[in-house]
Input
Amino acid sequence: MKFFIDTANLAQIREAKDLGVLDGVTTNPSLMAKEGITGTDNILKHYKEICKIVETGDVSAEVISTDFEGMVEEGKILAEIDENIVVKVPMTKDGIKAISWFTANGIRTNCTLVFSAGQAILAAKAGATYLSPFVGRIDDIGWDGMQLIEDIAHIYAIQDYDTMILAASIRNPLHIVKAAQAGAHVVTCPLDSILGLLNHPLTDIGLAKFLADHKKANG
Ligand code: G3P
Output
């Protein structure tokens, strides 16, 4: 399973990259706004900067347009920023039409705001490179986000679809483990969730004992 970081914060992207486990980045308009990145030129420059840090990994950049023509025009501009840009398109009728157009024209896509297996089938038929089911937001309304990942993984396997499942809206380290178990190809998560995977009290206790024993024996 690949690890993407879900942020537009350059310091956090660098920190994940320095760990040596970063395979890519996903952003969305809310995450860009959170970093105070506004205006087309600044947004395009910011994506360029992210691509530079990630080096070889995919970077999802989301369109703002909601109509087919607008999505295509915006997507073409985004795709020109860097060869690793993946155009993120919402799961709507125009979005599916745009994903089909991008697929036919060699531009890779990430279909976002996915909340059902039916939507996942449609995105795969349109040729989406990645599919982003929002696990945390499904959990938020009392449904089972991880069950959706499992259902889509099952459908994609038996139908032999090429679209990669990118588990999104990840909120904690357990979500990452569960996404791996459920068959996600990629997980995109906040830095905190990635770092949370490091923690176990027995690791801390064990290390303290090793160091104390070494000190006793060596002075
Ligand atoms: O990038 C989309 C997704 O990961 C958003 O997560 O936490 O806002 O539901 P969240």
Q: What stands out?
A: The chain has a mean pLDDT of 97. The chain has one domain: 2-217. The CA atoms of residues 121 and 159 lie 9 Å apart. Residues 6, 26, 28, 134, 136-137, 168-169, 188 surround SN-glycerol-3-phosphate (CB under 6 Å).
